[in-house]
Fold:
Amino acid sequence: MKINLKIPSLCLLLLAAFAMLGCNGGKNQPNIELIQDMMDQRALKSQKWDSLRNKPEEMVPPAHTVPRGFTPYPYHNQPLVAEAKLVNPYAGDKFQSTLKRGKDRFDIYCAPCHGFDGKGDGTVAQYMPLKPPNLMQDMVRKFKDGRIYHIITDGQGLMQPYDTQIYKASDRWAIVNYVRYLQKRTPDDGK
Ligand code: HEC
Structure:
């Protein structure tokens, strides 16, 4: 009987002690860490010296260098050169799979502004003081494929470049083909 009384009270005492350790009395101080797990980590501030690796934590790449395997876009700010030099490897909507991929990417990355039909009436367009242009207009129809590829890659005026989001060249060409497809099925609106 005696033992039976002692065990529950000991348990309660222990519980209270743990609770107090955990709550830390409401003070804004670190808890007492009973189980440390991942509490202590080797965190370093950017640009500070990493004494373990004996070099700065975050290195700025040396000037005029690029990461291995990265090819810089050669026609930055040169839409006319890009238009003259870039050749669409999937010209002529030859592959249905390309068109499907193009629609998929266009609907994600272009339709919010240019609209699902490319008419410049996307959901976001109504909130923009300067509206995104209609991609069905004559001027864009007359662009060579390379020009549209260039605009996706390098941006144009208000439109930001999409090279980091649409990082595969094949996806950009697929979008170009899809824009062509939209233009073919949309009657010329004469703008
Ligand atoms: C955030 C809105 C926005 C998105 C998303 C966007 N654009 Fe644009 N786009 C614009 C605006 C605004 C312009 C006009 C830019 C300028 O000339 O100042 C433009 C211009 C263009 C032009 C040139 C048309 C012309 O009349 O000069 C083409 C082609 C084009 N966009 C294609 C695309 C494609 C393809 C995508 C998807 C990869 C895309 N845009 C995504 C806003 C957008």
The mean pLDDT is 86. The longest helix spans residues 2-23. The domain at 79-185 is CATH 1.10.760.10 (Cytochrome Bc1 Complex; Chain D, domain 2). DSSP finds seven helices and two strands in the chain.
